[in-house]
Amino acid sequence: MIKGTFPIEKFRELETPFYYYDMKVLRDTLDTIKKEVSKYENFHVHYAIKANANPKILKVIREAGLGADCVSGGEVRASVEAGFPNDKIVFAGVGKTDKEINYALDHDIFCFNVESIPELEVINELAAREGKVARVCLRINPDVEAHTHTHIITGMAENKFGIALKDMLQVVQLAQQLSNISFVGLHFHIGSQITNMHDFVSLCERINEIQHLLHKHGIYPMVINVGGGLGIDYQSPSEHPIADFKAYFRVFTQHLHLRPEQSLHFELGRSVVAQCGSLITRVLYVKQAATKQFAIVDAGMTELIRPALYQAKHTIHYLSPLNCQLPTSKYDIVGPICESSDVFDKDVLLPVTQRGDLLAIRSAGAYGESMASTYNCRPLPPYYTDEELDLSVQLNKLYETLQK
């Protein structure tokens, strides 16, 4: 039972399901990132828009001074509309369309992270039509294993992302020859939800090898972009609301060999926003089966697909205004969607639960709202922030005072 963390009484007045964002947690996270980055010269952090493109979230992140990492033209547009400076926007992705590339060229973004020779040639052609020179980093597949879920590993040779190591030198030399391309650096990304810092050490060692090879051919990239991937604590979100940014940035300082003039770029997403968000849902029914109990809630895989898609585990908290200890029981927490995979978690120990009780599915600020769908003709979930609800409470009190 969690008390004092959420405005539970206010929640009970709202229609569920909805996303709730604790902006203090977000701001504290951003302050920690800025503090750690300030220790090093030439470190630049871009926020991975795909984690959460909520405009209020983007506004706070932009105000904190981070750049934007985009993987679609829509995300580039969202970044521009949120006020991110054009020279802090990077555009990655294996399948950029001509329309998306042209939009990014029109806004003179910092660079494209290019993943293949055909893409490089298309960007060169489109830039030539506009009379522009496009800055590019080449995304290299480093063939480095990340110890995380197989669906979110991106840096192995069999993955679709990036340019193969054996082709790297050829592609770099081609980029340097194209008249409307400015080769500025290298881009890497090995996966997501990585908590084993040795994976990042392995990435550093591979980048050192790559740079040594390029130096022998007189090639000196100015930008090294190591992607993101830093994981969070899904098991204990209240105890560890902020990821270990200190250890993360220190790994690259200690193990990556950079020249003084080089800049190091990061693309953090999940670790920035995951812990500030929770999916609030209401119990519809408690169903007793032969061997277990189901707590059927009004949120489903349409609101939070990660458990169905990745078998992801989210801590589920029972929200109650009661000031007493309730007996507990185990439940499978399931949604209403007509799919057997619409299960948030199994054998969850909760206070004895009944229709109308509220649950908070924690650590849902990343890849929650941004991956929501209208499957089963369900509406997209609304969202509220702690600041909005605090203001609402204050306005209601003021209204009641004026009525008196």
Describe, in plain words, how this protein is organized in 3D.
This protein is an alpha/beta fold and 404 residues long. It is built from twelve helices and 16 strands. Strands 1, 10, 11, 12, 13, 14, 15 and 16 form an eight-stranded mixed β-sheet that branches. The two termini are 36 Å apart. The model is unreliable at 151-157 (pLDDT under 50).
Largest sheet: 8 strands, mixed
Give the terminus-to-terminus CA distance.
36 Å
Please compute the radius of gyration using only Cα atoms. Answer: 23 Å
Count every helix, treating DSSP H or I runs of 4 or more residues as helices.
Answer: 12
Following the backbone from N to C, one meets helices and strands in this order, namely: HEHEHEHEHEHEHEHEHEHEEHEEEEEH
User: What share of residues are in beta strands?
Assistant: 15-25%
Shape: elongated
Ranges with pLDDT <50 over ≥5 residues? 151-157
What is the oligomeric state here? single chain
Brief characterization of the structure:
This protein is an alpha/beta fold and 404 residues long. The protein is built from twelve helices and 16 strands.
Which helices and strands, and how do they pair?
Blueprint: H1 8-12, E1 18-21, H2 23-37, E2 43-48, H3 55-63, E3 67-70, H4 73-81, E4 89-91, H5 98-106, E5 111-114, H6 117-130, E6 134-139, H7 168-177, E7 181-187, H8 197-216, E8 223-225, H9 245-255, E9 263-268, H10 270-273, E10 277-288, E11 293-297, H11 306-310, E12 316-319, E13 328-334, E14 343-351, E15 358-361, E16 383-385, H12 386-403
Parallel strand pairs: 1-16, 2-3, 2-9, 3-4, 4-5, 5-6, 6-7, 7-8, 8-9, 11-13
Antiparallel strand pairs: 1-10, 10-11, 10-15, 12-15, 13-14
Helix pairs in contact: 4-5, 5-6, 8-9
